Amino acid sequence: MVVFPGTNCEHDVAAALGSLGADADLVWHTTVSLAGYDAVVLPGGFAHGDYLRPGALARFSPVMQAVEEFAAAGGPVVGICNGFQVLTESGLLPGALQKNRGLRFICTTVDVEVASERSPITAGLDIGTTLRLPINHFEGCYTCDTGTLARLRAEDRIILRYVDNPNGSVDGIAGVSNASGNVVGLMPHPERACNPLTGEMDGAELLGALLSPSRCG
Predict the structure, then answer these.
(1) Is 117 a catalytic residue?
(2) Of 9, 81, 141, 194, which one is the catalytic site residue?
(3) Cβ(42)–Cβ(2) under 8 Å?
(4) Is 90 exceeded by the pLDDT of residue 200?
(5) Tens digits of per-residue pLDDT, 99-149?
(6) Sequence-ordered list of residues with C-beta below 8 angstroms from that of 145, at least 6 positions apart, any chain
(7) Catalytic residue (choose from 10, 89, 139, 191)
(8) Which position among 48, 141, 189, 216 bears the catalytic label?
(9) What is the spatial distance between Cα 149 and Cα 170, in angstroms, rounded to a whole number?
(10) What is the pTM of this model?
(11) Active-site residue 48, yes or no?
């Protein structure tokens, strides 16, 4: 779990992964090696206070070189919300996240549809599966140019779409992967839907796929 100054969802993700049987470590942003880890998660929050724009400063943290090396070696990397923003700013994922349509902060639960099995968090899930997941963002509107969108569609790299687009994201995109399929970013928070006490367990479908031996990557 990569932690930047301003990250605030790391313990939620660690607890969710722990409930699914994983051991999760918190890795400070000055770390220069991720050797020995099976997967890397960049959780939500406000890395470096979201100064300039979300993820713009976090991309320069020493750990991002290690994340790039980990991804280049085929390791699964997942960015959630602010983590997604960091991955786009660092060039590990295409496109960008901009202010929501209507310029309002959104905190609600939405339906998303699995659009591809080609990622560490959707591997093994049936395409068309609908999941109920919380969202919590102001700059969660995914955007990219027409050429990039065409490539994402052609290469099966759109992994999640909103059923009812809440923020104006192009093509209803809620999550995308890189060309190799091992790096993925999503705006919804699966870790907040992993609580059997509330009955909200759809997030466990995504995080459980990450922990599966058959995961993509």
Answers:
(1) no
(2) 81
(3) yes
(4) no
(5) 999 999 999 999 999 999 999 999 999 999 999 999 999 999 999 999 999
(6) none
(7) 191
(8) 189
(9) 8
(10) 0.95
(11) no
Question: How far apart, in Å, are the Cα atoms of 114 and each of 31, 128, 131?
Answer: 33, 5, 8
Query: How long, in residues, is the chain?
Result: 217
Compute the distance between CA of residue 184 and CA of residue 121 in angstroms, rounded to an integer.
8
Over 70: is that where the pLDDT of 214 sits?
no
The token pair at 61 is: 């943290």
Question: Is residue 150 scored above 80 in pLDDT?
Answer: yes
Determine contact, residues 138/105, Cβ cutoff 8 Å: yes
pLDDT digits (tens, 9 = 90+) for 21-74: 999 999 999 999 999 999 999 999 999 999 889 999 999 999 999 999 999 999
Q: Which of 40, 54, 4 is nearest to 121 (CA)?
A: 40
What domains does the chain contain, in order, with CATH numbers? 2-211 (3.40.50.880)
Round to whole Å and give the CA distance between 202 and 197: 13
Please choose, from the candidates 6, 93, 117, 18, the residue with its C-alpha nearest in 3D space to the C-alpha of residue 51. Answer: 6
- Is 139 an annotated catalytic residue? no
DSSP secondary structure string, 51-99? -SSTTTTGGGSTHHHHHHHHHHTT--EEEETHHHHHHHHTTSSSSEEEP
Proportion of the chain above pLDDT 70, given as a percent: 98
